[in-house]
Design brief:
Layout (H helix, E strand, L loop, with lengths): L1 H38 L20 E6 L9 H15 L4 E6 L1 H10 L2 E5 L10 H17 L5 E10 L2 E10 L18 H75 L1
Parallel strand pairs: 1-2, 1-4, 2-3
Antiparallel strand pairs: 4-5
Helix pairs in contact: 1-5, 4-5
């Protein structure tokens, strides 16, 4: 299982690393444009609603990403703990949009309200089209007023030994502090540009979150299986040592009995 996890980890890691430059560039671009939209909301056209707070009376939505299988160390418990802490600290009711059977099991145990469980979706077969479908569903929920805002609770892959559960804002799109406002020139027109860019940006956010989650899962599984293999090796050595001692004691006892019998004759 350690070798299988290592092989799959390499494949997912390559995909994650290759997707990072594109994800970082589009994130940077949208954050820059968010400043322009803040000063001129009409520039966003149909995407304008994604830059402003949704229905304030609605609950807060969270895309909760876990794994479908266990034997991956503390991966699921860590991301579940991050979700629990966020919900406890939130002053609003939260509803979940769940990916992964382990995440769904945790939501059931805690009694959290689940708005959607993407049961047929598997992170192991993740592709951009499927991630785009989930992104579009979340956008529809936000636009319809079912949620006031949306967060993503997933694990970010840092390195082979580090993968951090994080909760990041998904919707509405907010301009960072210090973002340019009036100096941004949009060509072609703002509504045309943002109408195409924003949906792709949100789809990329979801897709990259899934990639990082499955990469983190296999990094954690590889580490857990390595520890299990090492522990099994140590256990085998200990058991073999105990067996050899018992065998040697039995042989010594039998030799003593034979010698004692011979002396008696």
């Amino acid at each position: 299982m350690e070798m299988v996890a290592t092989t799959k980890l390499r494949r997912f890691q390559v995909n994650t690393v290759n997707a990072q430059p594109y994800s970082e560039e589009i994130n940077s671009l949208v954050k820059c444009l968010a400043g322009a939209v803040a000063s001129d909301p009409e520039a966003a056209g149909e995407a304008a609603s994604l830059f402003s707070e949704g229905n304030t009376a609605a609950p807060l939505g969270v895309l909760f990403v876990g794994s479908d299988r266990g034997l991956c160390g503390a991966y699921n418990s860590n991301v579940a703990r991050a979700l629990d802490e966020f919900i406890q600290s939130s002053d609003k009711e939260c509803v979940l949009y769940v990916v992964g059977s382990k995440a769904m099991a945790h939501a059931d145990r805690r009694g959290y309200k689940v708005a959607a469980y993407f049961e047929d979706f598997s992170l192991e077969q993740v592709n951009f089209a499927t991630a785009a479908g989930i992104s579009n569903h979340l956008v529809s929920e936000f636009r319809s007023g079912a949620v006031s805002s949306l967060m993503i609770c997933a694990t970010i892959f840092k390195s082979m030994a580090r993968y951090d559960p994080t909760i990041t804002r998904f919707l509405p799109i907010a301009a960072p502090d210090g973002a340019p406002a009036a100096d941004t020139i949009l060509e072609p027109s703002g509504p045309e540009l943002l109408g195409r860019l924003i949906p792709r940006y949100l789809e990329t956010r979801v897709f990259h979150s899934f990639l990082e989650s499955i990469t983190s899962e296999y990094a954690s599984r590889r580490f857990a299986m390595k520890n299990a293999t090492d522990a099994a090796g140590d256990m085998k050595k200990d058991i073999t040592r105990v067996y050899n001692r018992a065998r040697q004691a039995k042989i010594t006892s039998e030799i003593t009995e034979i010698v004692s019998g011979a002396e008696a004759l």
